[in-house]
């Protein structure tokens, strides 16, 4: 479980707190997305959860934050290894540089922990299968595309079986197929009880697999709730978050009287397709088409 209570953080050079009186609890196994405009505090929050901020950046904190029984302000990243895994946007920077194949790269962290060889092979093969990387097992990480490298970075984190995974825009360099594989892998993480904090810019794809969405606005939590509610909130644009294309299209249909009055605005492609299908049938029945 991750818990933040009345938590604020001000960087040494900051004129205002980058995080201001943050309060939330993410229970074990929940997949929570965090969205917000540039400068809203997302990277800072990711850094606090993964033990990087304020330990490596400096900064004053008030209130408290914890992962399980570990108080984050007192626990640097080095002590969170194995418990919290951070996957960043640029996969190239996450390669160890010390291993020659994808399979060895994924095994690297387990080798350092001295995990038994048979167990290591089992876990590495499983992760490669989950991320559909098995066919690339013998390729050099440096011969892979950015998207493949990102899947590798996720695999290297996943294999450590962390309690918490912090994913900072993990699909920003992936094509639609690669992004689909990552979000499918999140479903696997959920069933394994891993808590996931996902920082994403575009929510169209992840909306269907996250349990909750937090909106950060100028360091404060502006909204916190289920994707269906938060992602259709009319204030989303005021918080600097682009509304989903499905929601925007449905909102225009509402304005034209096409969208069924009691049907919620959609946040997934499936819900949008159902809604437009119903609107079309309604229009046909009314003799409009
Ligand atoms: N190391 C730092 N030292 C001083 N100020 C910082 C530092 N990192 C971030 N800030 C400031 O803290 C605030 C929050 O920044 P943060 O990077 O957390 O936002 P963000 O939502 O991740 O934005 P982006 O999407 O642009 O990365 C901003 O005003 C930023 O300028």
In short:
33% of the residues lie in helices and 20% in strands. The protein is an alpha/beta fold. This is ABC transporter ATP-binding protein.
Strand segment tally: 10
Uncertain spans, ≥5 residues at pLDDT below 50?
A: none
* Helix coverage percent: 25-40%
Radius of gyration: 21 Å
- Terminal-residue CA separation: 53 Å
Order of helices and strands: EEEHEEEHHHEHEEEHHH
Q: Which compounds are bound in this model? A: adenosine-5'-triphosphate
Could you give the order of strands across the largest sheet? 6-7-8-3-9-10
Strand content: 15-25%
Shape: globular
Q: State the secondary-structure class.
A: alpha/beta
Task: Describe the protein in words.
This protein is an alpha/beta fold. The chain has a domain at 247-285. It contains 8 helices and 10 strands. The strands form 2 sheets. A 6-stranded mixed β-sheet has the order 6-7-8-3-9-10, with helices on both faces. It has a 4-stranded antiparallel β-sheet with strand order 2-1-4-5, with helices on one face. Strand 9 and strand 10 form a beta hairpin. Helix 2 packs across helix 3 (117-130) and helix 2 (102-113) runs parallel beside helix 4. The chain is globular and about 70 Å long. The protein starts with a strand and ends with a helix. The structure holds adenosine-5'-triphosphate. Belongs to the ABC transporter superfamily. It comes from Streptomyces alanosinicus. InterPro entries: AAA+_ATPase, ABC_transporter-like_ATP-bd, ABC_transporter-like_CS, ABC_transpr_CbiO/EcfA_su, ECF_ABC_transporter_ATP-bd, P-loop_NTPase. Pfam families: ABC_tran. GO terms for molecular function: ATP binding; ATP hydrolysis activity; ATPase-coupled transmembrane transporter activity.
